Structures
1.
Amino acid sequence: MRRLGLYLHTLEKLSRGGEETVSSEELSGRAGTTAAQVRKDLSHFGSFGKRGLGYSVRELERELKEILGVDRSWRVALVGAGRIGSALFEYDGFDARGFDIVTVVDADPTKVGERWGGVEIRDIRELESVLREEAIEIAILAVPADAVQEVLECVTSAGVRGILNFAPAQLRVPEGVSLKDVNLVLEMEALSFSLTNRPQDR
Amino acid sequence: MRRLGLYLHTLEKLSRGGEETVSSEELSGRAGTTAAQVRKDLSHFGSFGKRGLGYSVRELERELKEILGVDRSWRVALVGAGRIGSALFEYDGFDARGFDIVTVVDADPTKVGERWGGVEIRDIRELESVLREEAIEIAILAVPADAVQEVLECVTSAGVRGILNFAPAQLRVPEGVSLKDVNLVLEMEALSFSLTNRPQDR
DNA sequence: AGCTGTGAATATGTTCACAGCG
DNA sequence: CGCTGTGAACATATTCACAGCT
């Protein structure tokens, strides 16, 4: 559930602000949802609040991290060192949440061997073995759409079970593998749709 | 409805492959949904198919473009010329769908005046006037989270009504403005959640 | 006969409203 | 008394199943 992540980020902000306790009302306001929604969402995983008081910020934060599995770090590989890949590699948010990009792989021979920070870019022909050696758990695919299905198969063969895909392609993943697609054109099209189909245009 | 965009992309692939006609069965297979879903989705906007035959690829493609509002081009501004901004600027998919990034704005004085392709980077202090001059319809926000609310207010004041936001912040938009958030950490957390809460771990 | 378009059935998600604990 | 946790009511989304056009 995506909202859990939102709650966690909100709690961390509250925590930095020195708040000790928070009500579902307050939390929902900051996360852009409703109080009932917050309570229902949390109640699926346990009873974390105190009636009459609210939730302990620190405690709920810890619980949510555990539920989301971000009370640990994850070994992540970046496949594709193009423009999107490089932006993702530099993106601080991943690091801050324990998603450690410990491997970068690319097909371009002029890039292979190059170093980004402490990470050497490896040849995509070694993809499967590199992923195994590095005990990668999550792969970020930032390769061209026409290459991504092949890369995906290799990645899943290597035992990776979480995939964040940026290529605009409909991927089929084996049972037991989680896939998240980020398709920016689809997002823009959704905006275009809203702007176009607005009855009360002024 | 996000699936409409998916259908459109699928149709374009079929079209390039020379297909004349497609059934809801076929379309759903390629778009990763079900035949009934496709028919229901399309039926909200009209009757585009022929019974016993299916849908004309070319015709449905045209209809979907019109519904989504991508039968035209859009004037888009990129606010924030950092790593994510530059990756987005170079991203071909936007251009191909008629989302023309005609303006780039940044706060860094060393970047202002620089040219990316034919586009000069403008100073963020001129943001509102630049957006008006350029008749911008959609803004992509790739600025730091602590600056984004301020930028957003400026952007909406300038009459922009569609916003794609990459900053991890909960934004409040005025009535009549469409906002899409892309939060990559949330996506990764969702993956982490699936990997963590998988009962039948082998 | 084949495949759409659609009401009806089902499933899923959200909001309401309140009992019950602190 | 305040705020959570939760069943019940409501709303939305998906799937089923079939009548009806071509």
2.
Amino acid sequence: MRVEHIGDATLYLADCMDVLPKLGKVDAVITDPPYSSGGMMRGDRIGATSSKYQSTEHRGLYPEFGGDTRDQRAYMVWCTLWLGLALSKVTAGGILACFTDWRQLPTTTDAIQCGGWVWRGIGVWDKTEAARPQKGRFRNQSEYFVWGSSGPMIDEGPCLPGVFRYSAQSEEKHHITGKPVSLMSDMLGICGGIVLDPFMGSGSTGLAAIKTGRKFIGIERDPAYFEITVARIRAAVGQGQLFEPERAKQVQETLA
Amino acid sequence: MRVEHIGDATLYLADCMDVLPKLGKVDAVITDPPYSSGGMMRGDRIGATSSKYQSTEHRGLYPEFGGDTRDQRAYMVWCTLWLGLALSKVTAGGILACFTDWRQLPTTTDAIQCGGWVWRGIGVWDKTEAARPQKGRFRNQSEYFVWGSSGPMIDEGPCLPGVFRYSAQSEEKHHITGKPVSLMSDMLGICGGIVLDPFMGSGSTGLAAIKTGRKFIGIERDPAYFEITVARIRAAVGQGQLFEPERAKQVQETLA
DNA sequence: TGTAGGTATGAATCCGACT
DNA sequence: AAGTCGGATTCATACCTAC
């Protein structure tokens, strides 16, 4: 295990199952785990992430990522395990937001409840331009986040939207499944204090947290993506991007 | 049972379980059943204490499934029944789109698969404003439709969006849960021919179908709502609103 | 700085060829 | 062999380049 302390960020190169038990309390868990999704056939799901999620001509743009080959029952059990661990690290009334796609959405809502969280709703990320349109079908142009709380809600802070419109291509992308930093910044309005992301990937949640004046704890088991995050967060801290004024105001409102 | 024939619409005043077995083949089922959603998952009543006293390995397995969840199981069985009946009335490759809210979304995806449909995705109706914004929460400003097909897709017709943005107050409402007619018109791009709505309510699906040149079969068991639909569809047929040019073009493309 | 037009791309999916 | 793999397909949107 390797640990990097960069400004208000603490980054672990390790599996979250190993690190989570050792952490102190956090205020929110905002994360984007591997979905283990894709395809009606088993072969479509267990293939390389590049061939599962990218067009033929674009395969190989990003490094592969692991942990994306569980079948539905195993995905359910695995999510329940890490969600239960995460719950034990959250303060009373703390928030969970966990991304998923249409195929795994029902499994994810089951898992967060089996993990002990109170399910509060579904948020929508409208990507505005879709994955591979097909004739005679509705486009699956959204991803979703299932969100909940540790026990009763505190009900402080701003009212947040339930649909977020951001192009998946609009910002620098370092991961096949990377989220726009501005999407994550908006979502962070749900919490103040310390944000935990057990599946950090290329670190967009962390970058958003640091830029909006929050503390961040991130865990990633892939060394290549870990290095990308370290570099991105170092750059943000070094350039004094600690406070986007707009976001900082939001943080203060949230904490007030 | 009462039956009204108005132009290309056939409207039944009856329970859909009674009427469905007697119908001929249709091309699509587009509907908005009662969600049975209120007060179903009161996890927050137990949340504060349950996470406090449970050890990591035994924490909160199925907290929401014990006790007051009979409603949800019954909803699941009921949906499976009518969805199975509906499947038997659809041509090969026919389409189902069934509205639901965030609470019943997972149950609905299970039910359409238990009913024998192939689940193809989730669509989003972004109502753009929330019923009740609450501090420190994401707004539940969306409803969803779960859609699928009877066996393999035909893959003809236009590519449709997966997110529809329409204000819930943008048009005249005849039903508490009424959908905008323009939303339904857009969604009907998924099919041509005969559209069936077993939970017709105030008839927005039927109105959209008639206005876009499709045939419609609707079923509603509440006499008050049935009369509203009869009046709305009579007015549309009488005023010769049979073809919105834009929609009619879309229909022809779909059928081509 | 603004507009117009061309190009790249997507947390897929399906089918056929192959081992 | 209750398989496996790779290529073709689809178009709205965002971004880039030229004027």
